[in-house]
Amino acid sequence: MPITEMLARNAELYGQEKCLTEINLDLQEEHHVTWLEYELIENNPAGEYRREMTWRVFDEKANRLANLLLKRGIKKGDKVAILLMNCLEWLPIYFGILKTGAIAVPLNFRYTAEEIKYCLDLSETSVLIFGPEFIGRVEMIYHQIPKVKTLFFAGENRPTFAENYDRLTANCSSEAPEIKLADEDDAAIYFSSGTTGFPKAILHNHQSLMSACEAELNHHRQNREDNFLCIPPLYHTGAKMHWFGSLLSGSKAVLLRGVKPEWILKTISEEKITIVWLLVPWAQDILDVIERGDVKLEDYELSQWRLMHIGAQPVPPSLIHRWKKYFPNHLYDTNYGLSESIGPGCVHLGTENIHKVGAIGVPGYNWEVKVSDENGYPVPQGEVGELVVRGPGVMKCYYNDPKATAAVLKDGWLFTGDMAKMDEDGFIYLVDRKKDVIISGGENIYPVQIEDFLRAHDAVKDVAVIGLPDNRLGEIAAAIIELKPDCKCTEEEIREFCTPMPRYKRPRKIIFDKVPRNPTGKIEKPRLREKYGAISLVAAQTKQ
Questions:
Q1: 418 vs 396: CA distance, rounded Å
Q2: Which of 137, 364, 502, 509 has CA 20 to 30 A from 181's CA?
Q3: What gap in Å lies between CA 280 and CA 386, rounded to an integer?
Q4: 3-class DSSP state for residue 234?
């Protein structure tokens, strides 16, 4: 069943009920508006800080865009790109594209102009819908993207090179277009995070999207009383696919623009949020402000908050132990997935398995998983191999890249590039990215293991371990450590802290610096290798 039918169903069953709320605390802070003034300024034409949408309006807006695109000649298989910050318009635009049978192409809002052009060219996009934050970047490239025939601008102060999205869609029919969709029809192109170079275009069909709905609902049991807080960017599979549980259950969700811990807690309290999906840095920040005394939990109404889950990266067990200290009644889940395996957990811990915290879990709903050698054969229990998954959410291919597709898709199995091991109970533990493994003096060193160990230090906020060139050992492990605010720590203290680790695993270089992460929370290790690798190489050559 195409996912667009779920939206039409909700519009019919729950048409007058609120489904989405956008809270723009960036805008609130810019205008120095206090939280208590929300109700006074909600309809202020100078800027709306809290906007709502019903299921019927959601469906109608999607239909209006679909009919506009069809008028402009868009047909099945054409590509329509979305370049927007999280906002109330985002999801209706996405579903409007799907209703035409076209392929939605969400773009990372942090892309440079060059990266935007690269992704538009690679995906062969015909239409780009963009917001005011991107006028400068699009203006730099719009004359260099001849395949993009139409530019729609969603917002005020339209640039002259684009058409007015709001005015044009307002004049289109709100009735659903009569386009037949099937599960095997192509639906969306998502781009890999780009942590290993320029992103790849990942093609999914409607079956993939619907399987994400079903997996999310099975894992977290959303019901009509739930209210999901969505903070991560909607262009990424993670955030949107977790929201799919709200779509399937017909429940509410809040889009929060801003990640300050105080904002998150206030929104949970004021909006009666029940489910929150966080990234590791945000959970860390919430705990830090609690422990520093900057916020007091008794100032917020949090009793309705039933589930906190984390995905997109390995989760340090120490973080969850701290979390349970302050939120002992929360259900907790870890979700493992890739854009290539569509969203909310081809592997997940399960809320009933908190005793296995540190594992990414067991196969998700309708998924098969194995830890294999390079030929795809399972390795013995407890040994390290590559994590391989198969299920209804596996991508169709890397668009226009058969060589890259063949390298990771074999007999329906997706080779993830993540190294893992399985324990005696069938729980899977991530060891590291295949490409991030450090080979030092013939020994394999897995950075995630060192990172987890170092995060237990009271002064450490975040850490990334990378391999740096070394004449004698080939590579050495270097730890880039970001300290908590107002905390001090020396290199000697870190080395002393690491003494319980086997000697070969201890980082040989300690660097105090900020740990860069992309919008989905993944450490940008290529940036760190570029920054410190060249320095290390020059130093090594100088010693010769």
A1: 20
A2: 364
A3: 23
A4: coil
